[in-house]
Amino acid sequence: MAQPSSSGAAADQVQPPTGTDRVPAGTGRAFRLATGQSIEVIPPDGPQLADMWAFALPDTAEHLSTEHTRSCLDRLSPRVGEAFYSSRRRAMLSLAADHSPGDHDLLLSACDQGRYDLLGHTAPHRNCADNLREALAAEGLAIDHVPSPVNLFERVVPGPDGELTISAPQLNGGESVVLAALIPVLVVLSACPMDIVATNGDDCTPKPIDVRIRG
Ligand SMILES: [Zn+2]
Questions:
Q1: Is 9 a domain residue?
Q2: Ligand 1 centre distance from Cα of residue 155 (Å)
Q3: Would residue 70 count as lying in a domain?
Q4: SS in 3 state form for 115-163?
Q5: How many structural domains does the chain have?
Q6: Is 19 a domain residue?
Q7: Is 95 contained in some domain?
Q8: pTM exceeds cut of 0.85
């Protein structure tokens, strides 16, 4: 197991390919999409989660809701061609393509300082909840609660007795998902800084997330 770090971010970052934005390991960024634009989310270096939130524009009080999505679809997560729904039951983002094994979790919370405290790392640690707050602050926005994220690429398998089995993402690097905006949205992605348990692979090393916006 890797030693916990205070940053949770990999030290060395290479440049992403031309036409691709990069969310550095352990950090978060916001991306604005007009209706019809799409965002491709790519873990370039292998196993790595991308916690994702989406907020309607211009009224960001409406946000992607994992519970409303499950309720609208009667499924744990959307299939290709289906949508992620808002807290007002509007289709916000469609899952346009999935070039990954298809593991995306809509059950677990974002990591936060409390998660690291419980793991024994009581010093400040970067976390997805703060990454969301920082990414929104950069857009001049603030929130008073952290919505449940879509944990892209996280493998969480419910058992018949209700137990959840969580295992490292099965990614080699370069797989992706493509999400298409059905309404104007602000998408926030956090390259999860977890480096204590194998959320981001058995190497317990946070990695970047690459992003391509089209349309
Ligand atoms: Zn996280």
A1: no
A2: 14
A3: yes
A4: HHHHCCCCCCCCCHHHHHHHHHHHCCCCCCCCCCCEEECCEEEECCCCC
A5: 1
A6: no
A7: yes
A8: yes
